[in-house]
């Protein structure tokens, strides 16, 4: 089983049961505990790997959404970002819920940098008059993040179809921050 497959299973297991052990993850992944321990010596090592994987996927999604293209329509960029982030919901939901990784300096740094792509897009939108300039850029970013989280949670509870989520988030956010 590949590293990404194990991480995919681990996310599901740990979201369902935050106290799940490495043995629980190994069993769900269909691998032996020894195999899992060869890759991740401790549960903390697995959590760190999951966190890095989540940040890697978010970074790739933001790069693929091409948010830093000068002259690009900000609203279209926001829609691409939302559409790219919705499928990553379980990974990001796990990150929001996970406690105990605040002592890993490179993860703290990644967390602090994680919203930079969207923040720059928001600032361009404010300068172009597409987003409200009377709200702080960080507040608009926090509003987006809150809307993403709400959509991901609604999807996980079966209240929202994944394909409906981007439009719902976009409509909600733009009516609140759009001019």
TrEMBL record:
Residues 21-40 bind DNA. Residues 1-58 form the HTH tetR-type domain. This is TetR/AcrR family transcriptional regulator, repressor for lfrA. It comes from the Bacteria. Keywords: DNA-binding, Transcription, Transcription regulation.
